[in-house]
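Researcher: Please predict.
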Amino acid sequence: MFTGIIETLGTIKDLRKEDENLHITVGSAITNELKIDQSVAHNGVCLTVIGIENDTYTVTAIKETIDKTNVGDWKVNDLVNLERAMKLGDRLDGHIVQGHVDQTGICKSVTETEGSWRFTFEYDAAQNNITIEKGSITVNGVSLTVVDSKVNEFSVAIIPYTYEHTNFKTFRVGTKINLEFDVIGKYVARLHSLK
């Protein structure tokens, strides 16, 4: 379980295929605080630490993860948003994030507006995921509030701190991003569909 509040950025140091799995080595300021078997969200994807060496650690993504997220597009030197699992009793500064990406989306536009940024993302509505105005959404692991909710797109407003301390600063039109829709909204939508 995560909160969507990014702790730090990591840098992809190595990518190694083994059968259908992808071993990903990441350099990070929090590496010395990690341990084997620990869950870490990478751009919102929950992956398990399998190895630690000096200032890098390694996680493995299986085929399903690669197919449903932007992990397969990662390249050496890419920046990824990192968050360790929340501790019981901590403040929930973002919202409840599972680290289970629902689908990917595409950055449709980036607009700077007097010290902040507005990002618009498009996604495949056929997968029955929804957003609501002022609801929660996770983009590359970042907990955000939805503005301009539409059937297959939404926008978010990014403050300078978030822009500088996440990989939002690398987004361009066409960038593929990971989306995790609000878990409460997903349960409500599921219950509604059973009626």
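Model: Residues 183-193 form the longest helix (11 residues).
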